Structure formats: structure tokens, C-alpha cells
Amino acid sequence: MKFAILLAALSISSPALADWEPIEKIETYAVSGESAEQLYLSIGEKGPVIGKDSAGKARRVIAHTFFKLTWQRDYQPQGNACVLKSARPRLIITYTLPKPAGKLPPALQARWDVFAAGLIAHEKVHGAGIVDMVDKIVAFSTGLTAENDPGCKKVRAELTAYLDQLSKAQRQGSHDFDRIEFGRDGNMLKLIAAFLDAPPKN
């Protein structure tokens, strides 16, 4: 049984173009079981729902990277032109991950710890992509100028077009990353296989 991880982003770079920092949060959902197989089945039953599959059933995922992005933008008319003087983002990235509801036997806990570390490492790549995307937006936005634009409509339209282009590239980057991770010899398939490999010995 395989469960996909939600595609949420592009590649974590540290913000280098502005004095802002992303806010990262971790939320968990409870899973239960006395073996790796039972825990994994519980993930399939309780993981976050991200839509429906082709059969109309709820599509659940192992882990989920979600982000909320808002902006403070300073548009300034300069004569007959408009200048976007600054664009300050507020980015909140939330990682949703499974967590055992109860205490696990030591051997199973050790296997779970490796599995959980691999999950967050994968999701952090998505988070890094989001940060990278926002950095690119800041770089493009700051100082963006349009002549004969007293109402700043041209600047806004140019920014919107760029954001649409960047968003598409971001989603494609996420799809490409997950395709590799879940493909043959991919890190995520290896991680899941290692977790389910053999019954733990206490």
C-alpha cells in the first residue's frame, strides 16, 4: 500500500533579499498500532485529506506541507509613473505529520524515529522551495516600475503575471521532486520499505 505526500512547494534557502523570516510550524495527527504495518495502515486511515481520487474516495496523504502567504506592499506614484518601493512577505509554513498516539516498544520506536526523520526531511525540501519562491517574488517586486501608470494598474498587472508564472513553476518543481522521491529507487519508497521491512524485536 502506498500513500502520496502532498506536493506543496518548490526548493530551505535563507531569506537573503529582505529582512524577513518564514514562520514554520509542525502539527501532528495521531496514529496507532503495535507494529510498523499497523502504524502505516493507521496513517492510511487517518492521514490528512487533500481531495478525492478518480473513484471519488477521499485521498489521504502521509504528510502535508501547507503555506499561507500575505504581503505588505508599498506602491508609490512618482509623477506619471508607479513604483513598487517594497514588498514585505509574511509566510507561515505548516507541516502536518503522523505521531504515535501511545508509547511504542523501544525497537519499534527506533524504527519510527528514522521514518519520522525521513518524512520531515522530505517535507522540508518543499518548505525550502516555498521560501525560495518568496525570495524570488521579493526580488522581482522591489523597485518594479511602470511609466504612464498613475493608478499603479500596470505594475499590479505585471506582478500578477509574474506570480502566475512562478506559481506554475513551483508546482511543477514539486511534482518533479516527488516523482523522483517516489519513483524506482527513490528515497521515500526506500524509507517506507525500510520501516515496513521486518517485525521489530523487543
The secondary-structure element order is: EHEEEEHEHH
Structural class: alpha+beta
Our count of helices gives 4
- What is the typical, i.e. mean, pLDDT? 87
Radius of gyration: 21 Å
Largest sheet: 4 strands, mixed
* Total beta strand runs: 6
**In percent, how helical is the residue content?**
40-55%
Give structural notes.
By secondary structure, the chain is of the alpha+beta class. 43% of the residues lie in helices and 27% in strands. It is built from four helices and six strands; from the N terminus they run E-H-E-E-E-E-H-E-H-H. Strands 1, 4, 5 and 6 form a four-stranded mixed beta sheet that branches. It has a two-stranded antiparallel ribbon with strand order 2-3. Strand 2 and strand 3 form a beta hairpin. Helix 2 (106-141) packs antiparallel against helix 3 (153-181) and helix 2 (106-141) runs antiparallel to helix 4 (187-196). The longest helix has 36 residues, at 106-141.
